Amino acid sequence: MYATMLYGAGDVRFEDVPTPKVQLPADAIIRVTASCVCGSDLWPYRGIQDYGRPVAMGHEYCGVVEEVGSAVKSLRPGQFVIGSFFASDNTCPHCQQGYHSSCDVREIVGGAQAPLLRVPLADGTLVATPEMPGDDLVPSLLAVSDVMGTGWFAADAAQVRPGSTTVVVGDGAVGLLGVLSAHLMGAERIIAMSRHPARQAIARQFGATDIIEARGEDGIAQVRELTNGIGADSVLECVGTQQSMDQAIKVVRPGGYTSFVGVPHGVQFRGEDLFFGHVHLHGGPAPVRRYLPDLIAKVWDKSINPGLVFDLDLPLAQVADAYKAMDQRTAIKAILRP
Amino acid sequence: MYATMLYGAGDVRFEDVPTPKVQLPADAIIRVTASCVCGSDLWPYRGIQDYGRPVAMGHEYCGVVEEVGSAVKSLRPGQFVIGSFFASDNTCPHCQQGYHSSCDVREIVGGAQAPLLRVPLADGTLVATPEMPGDDLVPSLLAVSDVMGTGWFAADAAQVRPGSTTVVVGDGAVGLLGVLSAHLMGAERIIAMSRHPARQAIARQFGATDIIEARGEDGIAQVRELTNGIGADSVLECVGTQQSMDQAIKVVRPGGYTSFVGVPHGVQFRGEDLFFGHVHLHGGPAPVRRYLPDLIAKVWDKSINPGLVFDLDLPLAQVADAYKAMDQRTAIKAILRP
To answer: Which of B228, B271, B285 is facing A267, going by the closest CB pair?
Structure first.
């Protein structure tokens, strides 16, 4: 089959690779209905993260079960399923606590920007929809696989509650879906930090009540002003850089909650800042599996439409264009159809 | 009056200073019944923190109201009161959220190692006991002023719950009272990290179920073993050094809670450690005022005895000996009687 390989900085190839097979009894093979490019795919694409070898790309996916291994109990060929970027057994102590992305036997799912995908630990990882979805639901079901689950975790980890004042740092797909999640959790005021008109429009559609374009000290001062000098109850850091983290730490009120869900690259926290700021801090790779049943149900009954973040729809063969558009920020997020 | 001044590293003097007076309408003057030396007093005593001028020492106190300013409504001379190291108004938005130590108008209370003490914002800061306490209660009421309130915050911030597995890093007075607090909150297993037999004995008396003497990688491995490889639900970091913080971060389970209540000195947190460890992190100067009514009630009905941490009882005039004993760790904590 033809699938997506990253050879190095800027070098995405759509090329012939071996078709995935069931390797272990707990595996499933799924025929990918849709996949996409993640913000985290851009780190190696930009050469900031170097694997030193060609890598099969893609970890966001939904599709139809093609084949299951002999140990798989809960799934059968023909079902439409969604999984997360970490395969998890859904039974270990960490899974039981809801931290599936720290599962004792977790495995990274890779190679989803392809027509077929092997998913390990299929019973624990994949969640089936009630029936085959219509085409209109596919983008939102795909979003649930990562960006919506991650935005939801960001809001959950930042303890957004009815009436909360929330700040979202980052206007990528995760940030925008963090806005939507905070809105669904009842935040009264949602301040989105964004300087891109198209992203601001989606943020407003998802429930943002205020937009701040300024960054750094100016951005911090504007949040302080909007919150009567108090700071926000909840801050969602959805980027992963030192600059955005500093911003997130400095706009939360004492005793408030800052979450961070973008893989931090070289980020350091000063002990004194966290101490005298009285910040609650929590983040990590989103335990998307915890949220899948609930988020799938919300998409299924059309109460949410996270698929709005896909503003570029391409055939899989044009995957290199998808990377380029996201890298240059001409697209928020590209959906790929094999 | 004669009171305690620190002139520089190791240079504690008990000398004649002006008697404190009501300066502002919200002030109270209290006649100190007992004061003590704090672990944080040892930083400047060791020269690690340099004020560049003589400083009136002491911020833990209980005593009898001597005089109140014209704006003080809730207190009257003759009442026995306890306050915290930060004076707070108990009405600002941060106080209302329970973060009195981030009060908008907070002031550090200093000069408590003395016969008389000026406490600003007296209505918001001081809490009176139901009546004059017996001598037997004084050490425990004094402990509530800082170390017990701080240990309680450590356990609260680390979300200790009935059945929790808890690790306490640090066997100073705060660590020991963190053990007691975790026990009172229902922790099933409490692992105290200590290599001092006398402190281990108090830890056991306060509810520790396990003692680990090892530090560093060995200490981490032993906690992992005791917790079946899972890690602890709650970890209380009660020291404030990089080494103890690293220990605390590495023994918590994914999704678990680490608190830190010792002023961090040059501590850095690596973003990747917090991210991939799925740690919840929260700390800061303990909002002792939040807990005072409850903790005073617990001391009053003798359900707790935090005063056990005082193993050296000296007249105030011997304050220099108290510093020396705590610096050399021959005493856990010294109580000073004017």
So the answer is: B271
Chain A residues with CB inside 8 Å of B264's CB?
A: 271-272, 274-275
Chain A: nearest CA to B243, how far in angstroms?
Answer: 13
Interchain contact, A254 vs B280, CB within 8 Å: no
CA B28 to chain centre: 22
How far apart are the C-alpha atoms of B55 and B329, rounded to whole Å? 23
- Widest Cα–Cα separation across chain A: 60
- List A260's β-bridge partners, or say none: A237, A283
Contacts of B263 in chain A (CB under 8 A): 275
Q: Give the Cα separation of A331 and A299 in Å (integer).
A: 23
Average pLDDT, chain B: 96
Per-residue pLDDT, B205: 97
How far is C-alpha B283 from the chain's CA centre? 13
Q: Which of A51-60, B46-55, B181-190 has the lowest mean pLDDT?
A: B46-55
Q: Does B55 touch chain A (CB under 8 A)?
A: no
Q: What is the pLDDT of residue B50?
A: 80
What tokens does A106 get?
């977790």
| Residues sharing a CB contact under 8 Å with residue A50, sequence separation 6 or more, in sequence order | A8, A9, A44
Q: DSSP secondary structure string, B51-101? A: -SS-EE----EEEEEEEE-TT--S--TT-EEE--SEE--S-SHHHHTT-GG
User: Is pLDDT of B277 > 90?
Assistant: yes
Contact B6, B45 (CB under 8 A): yes
The answer to whether B202 and B141 are in contact (CB under 8 A) is: no
Task: Give A 278-297 residues with CB within 8 A of chain B.
Answer: 278-285
Torsional class of B231: left (φ above 0), alpha (ψ -120 to 50), beta (otherwise):
left
* Backbone Cα Rg of chain B: 19
DSSP state of B131: S
Locus of tokens 């220099």: B320
Min CA distance, B156 vs chain A (Å)? 12
| ipTM for the complex shown | 0.95
Any idea of the CA torsion for A45, A48, A50, A54, to the nearest 10 degrees?
0
pLDDT of residue B191: 98
Q: How far apart are CA B63 and CA B225, in angstroms?
A: 46
Identity of the residue numbered B165: T
Which residue does chain B place closest to A277, by CA atoms?
B284
Q: What b-and-e string marks burial along B188-216, b requiring 16 or more CB atoms within 10 Å of the CB?
A: ebbbbbbeeeebbebbbebbbbbbbeeee
Task: Give the gyration radius of chain A's Cα atoms.
Answer: 19
Q: Does A130 touch chain B (CB under 8 A)?
A: no
In this complex, which of B99, B268, B285 lies closest to A268 when CB atoms are compared? Answer: B268
pLDDT averaged over 10-residue windows placed end to end, chain A, 338 residues: 96 97 98 95 88 93 98 98 97 98 96 98 98 98 98 98 98 97 98 96 98 96 97 97 95 98 91 96 98 98 97 97 95 96
Please check whether residue B153 touches A, CB under 8 A. Answer: no
- Give B82-93 pLDDT, tens digit per residue: 999 999 999 999
- Measured CA to CA, the distance from residue A172 to residue A39 in angstroms comes to 8
Mean pLDDT, residues B275-302: 98
